[in-house]
Amino acid sequence: MLEARPESEDRTELLWAVGETAGAERWLAEVLEAEPDATLPRLVAGIRHIGWGWEARTGARAKDVSRGQFEVFHARLRTAEQWLYEVAEREPQWTSPWYGLQVTGRGLQVGQTTARRRYEATVRRDRHHLGAHQQQLQQVCDKWGGSHEEMHAFARTSAYGAPGGTLLGQLVAIAHIEEWLSLDTGPDAVYMRRPEVKASLREAADHSFRHPDFVRRGAWIQVLNTFAMAFSLAGDRDAARECFHATEGRVTKFPWYYLDGSDPAAAYREQRSSTGR
Predict the structure, then answer these.
(1) What's the Cα-to-Cα distance from 97 to each of 25, 38, 87, 160, 236, rounded to whole Å?
(2) Cβ-based neighbour number of residue 262 at 10 Å
(3) Out of 41, 142, 193, 234, which residue is the most buried by the measure of CB atoms under 10 Å away?
(4) What is the DSSP letter of 230?
């Protein structure tokens, strides 16, 4: 399946499906040994080491992660970087290794300058790569050393710098969700229900999934799920209902795990019910 999906059609989602599969590193070692000159297994191994690294770290807050966990986490990310840089050298036009290096860079805290260079390397190869923009949005979030202002500016510039119907409209919704996450209970709801936030979400929706040029391919289901959550939190029931209807019951882990990490689908169902669907 990976060989059949060219880099020009963004195979990030497929790579990540392997990268998050527990135990994949064992059979990948056998593939690498059997095909020492093949590049694709190296790419998959690099992506898998990212997922394997986060398995060691877990999703806990940094203060709750032990020194030993961090050592394993960093070691696996450094191994991932070795594989990814080798792939990037072998296949200069491939996007995926640079996308992977965006993720490892944040985990290894390479700094904003290096992170920006890796993002730019990805989008030079695929100007509107959704994953690359999502990773850079995280990089400029307040929690990763950026700011809310920088995050919103990046989201808007990226979304409206792309043609109508773009998947990148999702970035505007993600930025609002990220600011909502940074606030305490109470102020978070007040923020999402501000008239200017609702207007921002509607404008982004018009430029994205509501646009006549919107094409249902790639991560389009995730885009609709993200807008569904954002509109739900904003109290815009009509717009949220529209998004839920368009998903046809298909749920993506992101962003619903922000509401229920153990059962994102339950969070989807609860918010969908609140809109009257």
Answers:
(1) 17, 15, 7, 26, 39
(2) 7
(3) 234
(4) H
Q: How far apart are CA 277 and CA 263, in angstroms?
A: 20
Which residue has tokens 């290794």? Answer: 97
Residue with tokens 């296949």: 91
Q: What is the helix (H) or strand (E) element at residue 174, kind and residue range?
A: helix 170-182
Q: What is the pLDDT of residues 158-217, one digit of tens each?
A: 999 999 999 999 999 999 999 999 999 999 999 999 999 999 999 999 999 999 999 898
DSSP assigned state of 184: P
Question: Token pair 């990773």 is at which residue?
Answer: 135
Find the DSSP H helices in the chain: 12-19, 24-34, 40-57, 67-90, 96-107, 112-125, 130-139, 148-160, 170-182, 187-192, 195-207, 220-234, 237-247, 253-256, 264-274
For residue 251, the SS3 value is coil
97 in Cβ contact with 84 (< 8 Å): yes
